[in-house]
TrEMBL record:
Pfam family, one: V_ATPase_I
Name of the protein described by the UniProt record: V-type proton ATPase subunit a
Coarse class of the protein's main subcellular location: membrane
Gene Ontology terms for molecular function: proton-transporting ATPase activity, rotational mechanism
Source organism of this protein record: Pan troglodytes
Localisation per UniProt entry: Membrane
Length: 826
């Protein structure tokens, strides 16, 4: 098992599975989810593997199951979940499942086909009956009973070529959206030698395929002449019209209508029996489909895993290689022993097997591995940034309380007016309990540090009420401990000047003196303090990330990286930005308020440090400051070529030395057995070889100098430029704290303070404060807690991902993906 701060130790093991028990063993491993199989047949196509026939059978069954599932969904039924955890069936059951499924699918196809044919036939009968029932009156194309038209000749010739022609009829139904085009085309093609009547059905009919109600347009066309009739039939066929025979006599049509109704009733009875039989077939499908899908999916997964195994030379067993957590090796051995057959027992061997990228596995009890997995999975046994990054960083923040300045004065001072006594006393007690509960964030941060949970709070602690203010007097004003309502009403703006005698009585024990909430210059003071604290925390946070990389180098046996990477990085970071933190703290400790007017500017000193210059108007903080600053800049710049060329040159030198010793090393390897090597040699993987181009074997792999130099150049540029940009990025803490403080003041001043000044009588105050406090509470929760909390969370998460984790967390590993049936069971 990995250490408390590292991922689980994962080993590469070799499994020897007897051919007769291989299926059972792999099925058992899938139920446990312990190992990730390696593909030992990567050069073999999928069609040439040992169990390709079984995989194809499973795929065919999956296609059949898909058809059955679509039929169940079409019938409006819901598949029930499988009962319990179903194991993968034995291989001999595959043929039985396939036969049952194919027989049921064929039966369902036949019944569904009969149902569709009966529905289509019933639909034709209903359409025919609707056409006869619509009441189209047959009209003669050659007769005009309403009078002569403008084209009718005034004198009819006695006899003629058309006197023996009779009128014919075409009746049918068409979809409504096709009726206008059909009518227009008939008129143009037949040149008006027809009479067409179109009517819409009063009641829609059920569609034979979709089952939805559909409207139809019936038509009756009277014409004379065979050529006209041929044109009409061709046009109706093009529009996919349903054409039915139409009798001219009324009695014949009524007789045909009765016959159609009788046929429809008979078809409905047959259709009902067919649908009842279909429901029985679907019932059997509901019983077979849920367990069958799970079993076939597991069976296919087992065969795919077996296809990744190689066959021994004697063809008596299958050899598999798999990644497994070291702490799960006893469970793996027990699973192989329990799933083996008598006389056919599987076994495993752990050794330095060649090939493959090592796998990484986080602790199972870490609640938020996705916080670091988003940037990529870390290398095997590398430092996990969850515990040192997300947990303890919240512990100092646990001392922080997000309290408004005027609210603090309201809680610690007397009541503003005697008239508000009973109401505000209860209100103040409630708010005091709220603020006191904020100090519970410290043990919460400690607990979150133990579990790796991120806690994003502020930077500034909430002072204990018992300490009392240390700045007790402002110029020409009585002590604030003795302040009264009348005094506060006359002096609403106070200015704290430490140079005035009696104002500064000593440093505050912890945090910011709450008396600054009454000062007129509190914003300028807190603004400068928060900005400097953000830089200090940022430099400490980044330095801590660089130090964490030391543990990775020591763990992987990369001692050279301590001198060629970690030491230059710390020198560069602390020599420039660590010196900036030193200047801030030194000025706080050595420059007193009496000399504040002539205090030197740290910003000008830091700029002159890079320019190797001096400003006469800006005095030095300590003697020989310019020499120290120039030395630090030169030392930091000297670390850049070491950081750029140190590791590549060392790797190239070591690689050439190995090439010279290769023959002797191969002889020793041939003499030594696989099991004679220690298990610790499995940990021979290092990020050196990963960064050098993914060296799988130290003796055989070839190091590519260009890739090593390119990788190190990218790392050097990213670190040196990142020190500048990352330090500036931590100023977001200053902006977030300033925005939160100002929003708190605005809510208190614009809501609660206005509400407190509306009424002077106790009853009036009670009535007024209820809705005002409700609005204040809602806005506080919505703006300060929800919106500001989400913003702080996102910014803090960004600082951990970009500014902190890139100092030691590479994210170049491969996450362990065990072979498991958990998703199938769910």
């Amino acid at each position: 098992m990995g250490s408390m701060f590292r991922s689980e130790e994962v080993a590469l093991v070799q499994l020897f599975l007897p051919t007769a028990a291989a299926y059972t063993c792999v099925s058992r491993l899938g139920e446990l989810g312990l190992v990730e199989f390696r593909d030992l047949n990567a050069s073999v196509s999928a069609f040439q593997r040992r169990f390709v026939v079984d995989v194809r059978r499973c795929e065919e069954l999956e296609k059949t199951f898909t058809f059955l599932q679509e039929e169940v969904r079409r019938a409006g039924l819901v598949l029930p979940p499988p009962e319990g955890r179903l194991p993968a069936p034995p291989p001999r059951d595959l043929l039985r499942i396939q036969e049952e499924t194919e027989r049921l699918a064929q039966e369902l196809r036949d019944v569904r086909g009969n149902q569709q044919a009966l529905r289509a036939q019933l639909h034709q009968l209903q359409l025919h009956a609707a056409v006869l029932r619509q009441g189209h009156e047959p009209q003669l194309a050659a007769a005009h009973t309403d009078g002569a038209s403008e084209r009718t000749p005034l004198l009819q010739a006695p006899g003629g070529p058309h006197q023996d022609l009779r009128v014919n009829f075409v009746a049918g139904a068409v979809e409504p959206h096709k009726a206008p085009a059909l009518e227009r085309l008939l008129w143009r093609a037949c040149r008006g030698f027809l009479i067409a009547s179109f009517r819409e059905l009063e009641q829609p009919l059920e569609h034979p395929v979709t089952g939805e109600p559909a409207t139809w347009m019936t038509f009756l066309i009277s014409y004379w002449g065979e050529q006209i009739g041929q044109k009409i039939r061709k046009i109706t066929d093009c529009f996919h019209c349903h054409v039915f025979p139409f009798l001219q006599q009324e009695e014949a049509r009524l007789g045909a209508l009765q016959q159609l109704q009788q046929q429809s009733q008979e078809l409905q009875e047959v259709l009902g029996e067919t649908e009842r039989f279909l429901s029985q077939v679907l019932g059997r499908v509901l019983q077979l489909l849920p367990p069958g899908q799970v079993q076939v999916h597991k069976m296919k997964a087992v065969y795919l895993a077996l296809n990744q195994c190689s066959v021994s030379t004697t063809h008596k067993c299958l050899i598999a290689e798999a990644w497994c957590s070291v702490r799960d090796l006893p469970a793996l051995q027990e699973a192989l022993r329990d799933s083996s057959l008598p006389g056919h027992r599987g076994c495993l061997r752990r050794g330095p097997l060649p090939g493959g990228q090592p796998r990484s596995l986080h602790h199972h009890h870490l609640p938020l591995p996705v916080c670091c997995d988003v940037r990529g999975c870390g290398p095997r046994a590398a430092h996990v940034p969850l515990r040192p990054g997300h947990g303890p960083c919240g512990e100092p923040a646990g001392c922080e309380g997000r309290a408004e300045r005027d609210l603090a004065d309201f809680l610690q001072g007397p009541l503003p007016a005697p008239a508000y006594g009973p109401v505000l006393h209860l209100h103040r007690l409630h708010l005091q309990r709220v603020l006191q509960s904020r100090h519970q964030h410290l043990p919460l941060g400690l607990e979150c540090g133990r579990h790796g949970q991120p806690v994003w709070l502020e930077v500034r602690p909430r002072p204990q009420p018992g300490w009392g203010p240390r700045s007790t007097r402002s110029p020409d004003r009585p002590p604030l401990r003795c302040r009264s309502d009348a005094f506060l009403a006359q002096h609403t703006m106070l200015t704290l000047d430490p140079n005035v005698t009696g104002v500064f009585l000593g440093p505050y024990p912890f945090g910011i003196d709450p008396i600054w909430s009454l000062a007129a210059n509190h914003l300028s003071f807190l603004n400068s303090f928060k900005m400097k604290m953000s830089v200090i925390l940022g430099v400490v946070h980044m330095a801590f990330g660089v130090v964490l990389g030391v543990f990775n180098h020591v763990h992987f046996g990369q001692r050279h990286r301590l001198l060629l990477e970690t030491l230059p990085e710390l020198t560069f970071l602390l020599g420039l930005f660590g010196y900036l933190v030193f200047l801030v703290i030194y000025k706080w400790l050595c420059v007193w308020a009496a000399r504040a007017a002539s205090a030197p500017s740290i910003l000008i000193h830091f700029i002159n440090m890079f320019l190797f210059s001096h400003s006469p108007s800006n005095r030095l903080l300590y003697p020989r400051q310019e020499v120290v600053q120039a030395t630090l800049v030169v030392l930091a710049l000297a670390m850049v070529p070491i950081l750029l060329l140190g590791t590549p040159l060392h790797l190239l030198h070591r690689h050439r030395r190995r090439l010279r010793r290769r023959p002797a090393g191969r002889q020793e390897e041939n003499k030594a057995g696989l099991l004679d090597l220690p298990d610790a040699s499995v940990n021979g993987w290092s990020s050196d070889e990963e960064k050098a181009g993914g060296l799988d074997d130290e003796e055989e792999a070839e190091l590519v100098p260009s890739e090593v130099l390119m990788h190190q150049a990218i790392h050097t540029i990213e670190f040196c430029l990142g020190c500048v940009s990352n330090t500036a990025s931590y100023l977001r803490l200053w902006a977030l704290s300033l925005a939160h403080a100002q929003l708190s003041e605005v809510l208190w001043a614009m809501v609660m303070r206005i509400g407190l000044g509306l009424g002077r009588e106790v009853g009036v105050a009670a009535v007024v404060l209820v809705p005002i406090f409700a609005a204040f509470a809602v806005m506080t929760v919505a703006i300060l807690l929800v919106m500001e909390g989400l913003s702080a969370f996102l910014h803090a998460l960004r600082l951990h991902w970009v500014e902190f984790q890139n100092k030691f967390y590479s994210g170049t590993g491969y996450k362990l993906s065990p072979f498991t049936f958990a998703a199938t069971d769910d």
